[in-house]
Amino acid sequence: MNDLHEGEVYDVAIVGAGLSALSLLRSGAAALGRTVVLDYQEQVGGLLRYLLPADGFGEEWELLRDFRLPQGVRLLLQTTAVGLLPASDAEMAHTLVVRQRQGTAHLRARSVVIACGGLERPREHDAIPGTRPAGVMTPVLALQLLARGYLPGRRALVYGASRYALATARRLAAAGLEVITAAPTAANGRQVRFCGTLEEICGFPRLSAVRLLCDHQPVEIEVDTLIYATALQANTHWLKGSGVELTAAGAIVVDGQYRTSIPGIYAIGTVVRPELDHQHSLRMGKEVAALLPGGVS
């Protein structure tokens, strides 16, 4: 399944097999012609699949649970896009530089849909002061550990107020951890135990406490695990030098029809709107299915 056959030219190449890509495939893959989908993971569904099923993500779970690869669509897993070489004119194909276990190769397609999602932002990105102990992680690592039968700790602080963060807190509690919730703000009416700024991470070699500033008052909470769940950043580092226009924060700029700055290249999902809750991903996938050449309305 993962043989590239470099001489082939596809009608559509979809980079990523997360929720927006699956929504696109479900909505209109049969009309798109020769289609290939590639993803660096071993399964489809993106990072959110480690959480599902979960309260508040019913539609996403139904999509993932019921998804079947459309006939004629080629799926290349454990295949990572590492570069994009846009076509020099409208009659030529775009080239994706991809890496597999056996090496690097080129994949060519007349249209490209970038749906490679985002990366959970770590505490290092936000320069949170303190030590660098074990026990500090983003939600996906904690969920992956649970999926493999390991507990990430005994007493955890989940820092973030998104649906995703709170669903992660519930999953950890169900697994037997003592869980405390906190966030910079109680966004969208979601309740957390503490609201405040994360001021410092303490302990080494294992996390022993975190310090918050809540209503101008310092609060120290003893925990051995911190789940840092504040934001998502677009996975666009591999597009450097491609000419695809990005925002200052690194997300892909698109117009109302999901077209990027390069003709024939589209973008959907959290690579366009980086949100932990993926609240626009399914809609974007469905809409772009009708906008691609040959797409269905």
UniProtKB/TrEMBL annotation:
Keywords: Oxidoreductase
Any one GO molecular function term: oxidoreductase activity
Keyword Oxidoreductase set for record: yes
Record-linked Pfam families: Pyr_redox_2
Residues covered by the FAD/NAD(P)-binding domain: 10-275
Protein name in the entry: FAD/NAD(P)-binding domain-containing protein
